[in-house]
Design brief:
It is built from 7 helices and 19 strands. The chain is of the alpha/beta class and 413 residues long. Strands 4-3-6-1-2-5 form a 6-stranded antiparallel sheet, covered by helices on one side. It has a 6-stranded parallel sheet with strand order 10-9-8-7-11-12, sandwiched between helices. It is globular and about 75 Å long. 33% of the residues are buried.
């Protein structure tokens, strides 16, 4: 080996060591600065930037009445900490916690939890929810109106604060721009549909979107100017509004296109022969009729998505109670705070219905396993769920609204 060759090899080795050292220094600087190396294939997925756990305080930045009857109000919510908000998927909801005055028998303040759909496209600066004022049930005018919705309508002023959990929910618009989407809404079910429409126009330009929106009359027609403006500006967007009880000032062909309810006869032309992604959100009567009819029409299960008012459980509407437990033998369920022991017979859909049917008052919110308001400590026994709750249940606790006993139970409630 000649001297020049030896010198060249030594220089090459030194150069290689220098490159390794520089690479290591750069990697270490990135990690130190908070930019981690790419995760391995088994690493857990990272939450979206800005996501949070637990509750976060928001301020009401603006409120807007969305219908002539003033039954639906949108609240624009900005985080008090001023940090950017995580993106959400169109159709998801927020879990809301508000402090309301108690009933006359217990007038002190109480904290209640509800879930409301996001009604706009993602915005890193603010969220928007739209809340319908809930009155007493039509068949029970003696019962009180919705506590939280009425409190927000009456006391949810600009500058007021509420607490929110991070957006959640599986009723979301898909990413398949090649498949036309049929969005069917009844009443306040228009709120997640508005989020889907606004997002799709930005993220999926040109995707055919068919919206069917049913209300009783023009007084309850929410987002009317916004929907009509989209229908005028976007040739890929088709809007059909149905009034079941048109008022004397409601103009056919102008304010609404169909007198009556949304049914398969109205949808048939839109469904056509090709594949359609169908989304349904509305009151129980709509869900009980349309969802089975769409299945019978041949809409594939993977293309059929539905949500009743509030986040849905994902169970198929069938006209009968969804009973997680059909045990032939009764199970004892003891409620420690109430001092009662009852026999579970499988006739109720969940432990919350079971407790209420037997006169045991339990705090509740969404009634679908999303908000955690009915979370209760399990002192003994096992609770099982038809599906995993959306709420992160604390160890040793259960959610009454979606749980059923798998053994004799002793609960804190």
């Amino acid at each position: 080996m000649t001297a020049p060759t030896l010198l060249a090899l030594i220089l090459a080795a030194l150069l290689a060591q220098l490159c390794v050292g520089v690479g290591f220094a750069v990697w270490r600087a990135r990690v130190t600065a908070g930019e981690p190396a790419a995760p391995g294939p088994d690493a857990a997925p990272r939450p979206p930037p800005g996501a949070w756990t637990g509750w976060r305080t928001f301020r009401i930045a603006r409120r807007e009445v969305e219908d002539i009857a003033q039954t639906q109000v949108s609240f624009h919510l900005e985080p008090v900490d001023g940090e950017p908000l995580p993106p959400f998927r169109p159709g998801q909801y927020l879990t809301v916690s508000v402090v309301c005055p108690g009933p006359p028998a217990a007038p002190g303040p109480r904290t209640l939890t509800r879930c409301y759909s996001l009604s706009d496209r993602p915005d890193p600066a603010r969220y928007r929810i739209t809340v319908k004022r809930v009155g007493p049930p039509a068949d029970r005018p003696d019962l009180p109106p919705g506590v939280v919705s009425n409190h927000l309508h009456d006391a949810g002023c600009v500058g007021g604060e509420i607490r929110l959990r991070c957006p959640a929910g599986a009723f979301v618009l898909d990413d398949d721009i090649a498949t036309p989407a049929v969005l069917i809404a009844g009443g306040v079910g228009i709120t997640p549909v508005m989020s889907m429409v606004q997002w799709s126009r930005t993220a999926q330009p040109g995707r055919p979107i068919y919206v069917y929106y049913a209300v009783r009359h023009g007084g309850e027609h929410a987002f009317k100017p916004a929907l009509e403006a989209i229908a005028t500006a976007d040739p890929a967007f088709r809007l059909t509004v149905a009034y079941s009880r048109p008022g004397p000032r409601d103009r056919p062909g102008v304010d609404f296109q169909h007198a009556g309810r949304i049914d398969m006869g109205l949808l048939e032309g839109t469904l056509g022969e090709g594949r359609r992604a169908v989304y349904v959100c509305g009151p129980p009567a709509m869900m009980e009729t349309l969802v089975p009819a769409l299945r019978a029409r041949g809409v594939a299960e993977d293309d059929l998505h539905f949500e009743a008012f509030g986040p849905a459980t994902g169970q198929a509407p069938s006209g009968a109670a969804q009973r997680p437990d059909l045990a032939a033998e009764p199970l004892d369920v003891a409620f420690r705070s109430s001092g009662r022991t009852l026999s579970w017979d499988g006739l109720d859909a969940n432990l919350l219905d079971f407790a209420e049917r037997n006169g045991i008052a339990v705090e509740s919110g969404c009634r679908t396993g999303a908000c955690g308001a009915c979370e209760t400590r399990v002192l003994a026994g096992t609770v099982r769920y038809v599906e995993t709750p959306g709420f992160d249940v604390s160890p040793g606790h259960c959610l009454l609204c979606v749980g059923a006993p798998a053994s004799p139970l002793r609960l804190e409630a």
